[in-house]
Amino acid sequence: MRMVDLINKKKRGEALSAAEIDYIVQGYTKGEIPDYQMSAFLMAVYFKGMNREETANLTLSMVNSGETVDLSMIEGIKVDKHSSGGVGDKISLVIVPLCACVGIPVAKMSGRGLGHTGGTIDKLESIEGFRTELTKEEFVNNVNKYKMAIVGQSPNLTPADKKIYALRDVTGTVDSIPLIASSIMSKKIASGCDCIVLDVKVGSGAFMKSVDEAVILAKTMVEIGKALGRRTVAVVTDMSQPLGYEVGNANEVKEAIEILKGHGAEDETTVALTIASHMAVLGGAFSDYESAYNHMRKLIESGKAVEKLKELIRIQGGNTDVVDNPNLLPQAEKHIEVKSSTAGYINSVNAEDIGVSAMLLGAGRKTKNDSIDFSAGITMVKKIGDWVDEGDTLCILHTNKSDFQEAERLSKNAFVIKNTKPEPIKYVHCVID
Questions:
Q1: Which residues form a coiled coil (predicted)?
Q2: Residues 351, 311 share a domain
Q3: Distance from the CA of 72 to the CA of which of 266, 317, 333, 351 falls in 20 to 30 A?
Q4: What are phi and psi of 274, to 5 degrees?
């Protein structure tokens, strides 16, 4: 095989065989295929796409490029959850204790934040003492005994995806559905789970800006899961504004605690209960979604869910006092109120701009090697549909930096205010199973 022939084949819109895809993925991972040829191939995929079989084969080849996790020592049906990325998305912190409460083993491997999207591992590390690196024995024991564990992803998991994604990021080929789908699903398949629930975000803070695009991505990933023997459900949820009211690591932990205490915002509570309920059905705890949803809600109302979060923090070495006193979490020195210059209804909020503002304040990373400030972030005071008067606070910036002016400007401009009240937001757009 020659790489140039395969580039030309895809450029003509022809389907590649499993062997041809494996030649490309493994060759590039080993350094046998140069960046310039892989860039040309990725651009050909961007314009010509891939069919269902090609996308599944691309996913499997990336899985086979490195280690895979063996969860056979964990009892029961292992269910994992993945979000396609958003702003203020602290759903993993909520669904893990909820699923553990009903006996669903959640052996979760999560990532760190990069750019305008946050990472679950960073959020958990804002809790004093919380360990996101466990030995294999600790990980398996915690899931078997307590039905939950959250750790960072192994560096040897899907090295092809890491290398290909880095190239996509600098060649304008990130927003390709086959490439997004195979990237996400390769990590989930390699993580060893039996079933997968995908939280596919749509809106200004997500990769997919329209519901139609998000549905195509969701269907593609469900098809990959089916082709590779994993029961998969995709839930398309809204990211036209930050989820909940808090953005930033310690801020989002605090808000996750409030959700599990029954005091969470309607949007994030609805999304969390929806995701957790589908996980519970796939894991065999309930026969139908309605029963699961009602039971999950009662777990929050009874206080059992927040106690399970406290248990998760304890078994991974964290300070459980933060559950009863969230003010023990890191707090910034500066709190800047961003004011409205006009009166009217909030018609839209650019979630990506809010996420970038939080990053500029210290809550995120421009590059993967940047350090973050756990206390930095943004509190949303007003959201879509709210009325504001001139001079009302739109959001509050939290930072330890003195140069916050760019974040202040960007976050203020993220709010679009008009005289007419917008239609209510649909938190869950559809479910693909």
A1: none
A2: no
A3: 317
A4: -65, -50
Q: Which of 421, 331, 418 is nearest to 377 (CA)?
A: 331
Cite the active site residues. 82, 161, 168, 183, 187
DSSP states along 186-202: HHHHHTT-SEEEEEEEE
CA distance 52 to 228: 12
> How many folded domains does the chain comprise?
3
- Upper half-sphere CA count for residue 422 (Cβ side, 13 Å): 18
Same domain, 384 and 291: no
The amino acid present at 217, given as its one-letter code, is L
User: Contact 94/260 with Cβ under 8 angstroms?
Assistant: yes
What is the domain-level CATH number for residue 354?
3.90.1170.30
Residue 298 and residue 410 in one domain: no
Is residue 209 domain-shared with residue 312, that is, in the same domain?
yes
Pairing of strands 344-349, 387-388: antiparallel
User: Greatest CA separation found in the chain?
Assistant: 66
Q: Name the residue type at position 114.
A: L
| Residues 296 and 198 placed together within one structural domain of the fold | yes
Per-residue pLDDT of the chain (433 residues; tens, 9 = 90+): 999 999 999 999 999 999 999 999 999 999 999 999 999 999 999 999 999 999 999 999 999 999 999 999 999 999 999 998 889 999 999 999 999 999 999 999 887 766 566 689 999 999 999 999 999 899 999 999 999 999 987 778 899 998 998 899 889 898 899 999 999 999 999 999 999 999 999 999 888 899 999 999 999 999 999 999 999 999 999 999 999 999 999 999 999 999 999 999 999 999 999 999 999 999 999 999 999 999 999 999 999 999 999 999 999 999 999 999 999 999 999 999 999 999 999 999 999 999 999 999 999 877 766 789 999 999 999 999 999 999 999 999 999 999 999 999 999 999 999 999 999 999 999 999 8
Separation CA 224–CA 212 (nearest Å): 19
**Rg of the chain's alpha carbons, rounded to an integer?**
22
Position of tokens 């995929």?
A: 45
- Among candidates 353, 339, 346, which has minimal Cα distance to 394? 339
Per-residue buried b or exposed e for 347-363, using 16+ beta carbons within 10 Å of the residue's own CB = bbbbbbbbbbbbbbbbb
Tell me, yes or no, if the pTM score tops 0.70. Answer: yes
